[in-house]
Amino acid sequence: MYNATNFGSRVFRYEVVGLRQNAETDKTNHSIRNSGSQFFNVPYERMNQFMRQISRWGGKIVSIQPLDGSAPLQANTQPTPPSTPEAAAPQPAKEKKVDIPVNIYRPNNPCIGKVISNEELVKEGGEGTVKHIVFDISNTDLRYLEGQSIGIIPAGTDANGKPHKLRLYSIASTRHGDHLDDKTVSLCVRQLEYKDKETGETVYGVCSSYLNKLQPGDEVKITGPVGKEMLLPDDPEATIIMLATGTGIAPFRAFLWRMFKEQHADYQFKGLAWLFFGVAYTANILYKEQLEELQQQYPDHFRLTYAISREQKTADGGKMYIQNRIAEHADELWQLLQKKNTHVYMCGLKGMEPGIDEAMTAAAAKNGADWQDFLKGTLKKEGRWHVETY
């Protein structure tokens, strides 16, 4: 085994193939060719960081040659890193073990993120307001995985003069952030608004109102990340069925961006991703253009099914909810669930669950099975049924 004393401050020459000119490489000073090998001189202390960078660029390391003339390293070998925060980061490429970060920052010691952008997602004619908010976390140690959540502590105090409690929000970006530089985290936030049953007055959510009004440059207290329930499996051949209502799309945006919009040497999705998305109006389909672009680009790997309750009708003339779409495809979904690498993820309104159970109960019965037995004894037991509803 190699160790830090073997390498010290030596410099290594990396031969890399497969690099492509893209938005990530455009941010560097490197001239990226479309074919052939490229060579990089890398100090020992930057090797971990460089290998992760090559992974994000979509490249493959084919050789590592010490510049002092000693024997070369294998391309999949790296020295045992020194005990530094940089070296403690997730292992690159072929390392299968996933480091799941949890509670790096707690309510009594949050990190400070800075707003980069705060953009409306609901189109004209839609209902309510939903913002896509990007935070700069480059001056923090916050890191996260797709499917996790972060906490936001609103500024100010409550009616009793105490600091506001944190609210959790599902992360809407991949682990590399919207800018692919590991320096941002994004949220998809609906402005909470409802009528008080006793007074009839309109009540606005404390944290959603706070987030809705943020401007670029504003600082925000962030905690987390938290959550292991909604993490993607490592299997790039898996079938991923996603059921979302409204801002429940947030973790699935992260999933789909990782599957299709980013390129990774260690994760190249070749399975099936099927998103069922329930909203009130077409104008409320969040990230609509990007979702439909992915569907066009990857028709063999991504299916997109909308349930637009105020515009679409069921066969019997009722409103079209997500559970109605599940009922339409229940027989096919039942067959997909027989595969050991099919996972179901549900995020959004809890009200969709009974209808989905009803549809799948009928499909299971056609095949001589009991849905609840299959759900509890197979899907949940095998960790293939993931739910985050409210």
Order of helices and strands: HEEHEEEEEEEEHEEHEHEHHEHHE
* Global structural class: alpha/beta
- Major β-sheet profile: 6 strands, antiparallel
Individual helix count: 9
- Please state the average pLDDT score: 85
Total beta strand runs: 16
Tell me the fraction of residues in β-strands, as a range: 25-35%
Tell me the Rg in angstroms: 23 Å
- How far from one another are the termini? 49 Å
Helix content: 10-25%
Instruction: Give unreliable regions as ranges.
Output: 1-8, 26-31, 76-95
Note down, in words, how this protein is organized.
With 390 residues, this protein is α/β, with parallel strands linked by helices. Helices cover 22% and strands 26% of the residues. The protein contains nine helices and 16 strands. The strands form four sheets. It has a six-stranded antiparallel beta sheet with strand order 7-6-11-4-5-8, covered by helices on one side. It has a five-stranded parallel beta sheet with strand order 14-13-12-15-16, with helices on both faces. The longest helix is centred in the last third of the chain and has 15 residues. The radius of gyration is 23 Å and the shape is globular. The termini are far apart.
Map the helices and strands:
Elements: H1 4-7, E1 11-17, E2 38-43, H2 47-57, E3 60-66, E4 111-120, E5 130-136, E6 149-153, E7 167-170, E8 184-190, E9 193-195, E10 202-204, H3 206-212, E11 219-226, E12 239-245, H4 250-261, E13 272-279, H5 288-297, E14 302-308, H6 322-328, H7 330-337, E15 342-348, H8 352-366, H9 371-380, E16 385-389
Parallel strand pairs: 12-13, 12-15, 13-14, 15-16
Antiparallel strand pairs: 1-2, 1-3, 4-5, 4-11, 5-8, 6-7, 6-11, 9-10
Helix pairs in contact: 6-8, 7-8
